[in-house]
Amino acid sequence: MDESVASGLTRALGTVLGTAELPVRLRGWDGSEAGPPDAPMISVRSPLALRRMVWSPGQLGLGRAYVAGEIDVEGDVYAAFAALSSAGKLAEKGAFRAATLHDRWELARTAAQLHALSPEPAPPPEEAPVGRGRRHSRGRDAAAISHHYDVGNDFYALVLGPSMVYSCAVWESPEVGLDAAQEAKLDLVCRKLGLGPDSRLLDVGCGWGSLAVHAAGRYGARVVGITLSVEQAELARKRVADAGLTDRVEIRVQDYRLVPDGPYDAISSIGMAEHVGRAELPGYVARLWGLLRPGGRLLNHAIAFNAGENQWNPDSFIARYVFPDGELVGMATMVGALEAGGFEVLDVEALRRHYALTLRAWVANLEAHWDAAVAATSEGRARVWRLYMAASALGFENGSLGVNQVLVRRPGPVEPPLRRTEWV
Q1: Burial of 203 (0-12, 13-18, 19+ CB in 10 A)
Q2: Which residues of 252-267 are buried (b: 16+ CB within 10 A; e: fewer)?
């Protein structure tokens, strides 16, 4: 008697994960089922999913199959992703261990038995093309930013909600709601930077202009916001105009390395340093130092690997589909780079749990507006965002990922307050 599709898939996924006992139940494209009866259900709808595992036996192959709709989760996506990430030989921080030659042979043998062995399928079109030119050159960085951010302002509005803030919120409690938590974050940034009437603020990676509008409208600051995303800049300028702040806020499509008009009283870099790259950190720090007046403050808000360093894998799902050429570093590396560049550290605040709440709120928005989100971009793109945001939420909850606000100052005549109670 021929083996059922589900039994073969169980063996194949076990090979990828390095475990004989899967924590999920599988339904094959023939309707067969295998695995623990009470475990999260994963439906494998097409032999193409198994072919992708044969050719890319790890996170990337599974991710491609999910984006293409060849694999789906029935029920709670968090339960399924958590079960997979805890299985077998998954390495520290959720990375898949490299497949051995024996693994590849076993996968090919299983695929042949299930009549699913064939040439490698083309990746879903949502995958980023391999970057051309020197990594982190201005042109390649602009292309990487465009891949992630120029996917439609309407799509981001559905996911982010009215605040249009695409970084970790600050939650007084889980009950306050996403918009209130994002407003609290914007206000906290302004207070940490010591903004006041006519303070000159440079917002590096300004997104859709939310911090610029808040700083100018609430604190009277004069703001220059820069982004490499043309779509972000267009909407940010409209939001500035709608708020009646065109005399105080300028939005530019500009690389931070080309800003010509310092010095600024304060600089914010919120969720931008992840795009800089480890090797480029000294230049990033030096450039921001040069744009800041003596005594001025810089707030660097960035995601980090927790519990030590980890190498960014350019062939991981998140590197191929979400943040091409992005790179995370540990907090020690970031603080060390800032101090090596001459900055004095004033405050470090870890917001790990806050980002888990933020990501879950974004996933809830996406799920609630699924049909509209698909119409605004593509089903594949919506699936990319659901996978990356839900998996990232789990990463922040289990402590493998963190996010930190590091407040520093360029030494100068203006002393910081004696206690951090000025801004908390």
Answers
A1: buried
A2: eebbbeebeebebbbb
Cα–Cα distance, 338 to 348 (Å, whole number): 12
Taking residue 365's Cβ as centre, other Cβ atoms within 10 Å add up to 18
Look at residues 135, 62, 138, 144 and name the one whose alpha carbon lies nearest to residue 96.
62
User: Going from the N-terminus, what domains does the chain have, and what CATH number goes with each?
Assistant: 5-113 (no CATH), 138-422 (3.40.50.150)
Distance CA 303, CA 331 (A): 9
The pair phi, psi for residue 270, each rounded to 5°, is -110, 110
CB 416 within 8 A of CB 347: no
Nearest-5° Cα angle at 127, 23 to 161: 80
Compute the CA torsion angle 131, 134, 135, 141 (nearest 10 deg).
-70
pLDDT confidence of 252, banded at 50, 70, 90?
A: very high
Residue 129 reports pLDDT greater than 80:
no
C-alpha count within 13 angstroms, C-beta hemisphere, residue 276? 29
Q: What is the mean pLDDT of residues 330-357?
A: 96
Provide the pLDDT confidence category of residue 389 given band limits of 50, 70 and 90.
Answer: very high
208: left (phi over 0), alpha (psi -120 to 50) or beta: alpha
Euclidean distance between CA atoms 272 and 303, whole angstroms = 9
182 backbone φψ class: left, alpha, beta (φ>0; ψ -120 to 50): alpha
pLDDT one-digit tens code per residue, 145-203: 777 777 889 999 999 999 999 999 999 999 999 999 999 999 999 999 999 999 999 99
User: Which has the minimum average pLDDT: 8-12, 56-60, 301-305?
Assistant: 56-60
For residue 149, give Cα distances in angstroms to 144, 229, 363, 377.
9, 6, 17, 12
Pairing of strands 200-204, 264-270: parallel
Are 164 and 151 in contact by the 8 Å Cβ rule? The answer is: no
Q: What is the pLDDT of residue 1?
A: 40
Taking the C-alpha atoms of residue 251 and residue 293, their distance in angstroms, rounded to an integer, is: 21
What's the CA gap between 381 and 385, in Å, rounded? 6
Q: How far apart are CA 387 and CA 381, in angstroms?
A: 10
* Statement: the pTM of the whole predicted model exceeds 0.85: yes
Angle between helices 47-55 and 59-67 (to 10 degrees): 150
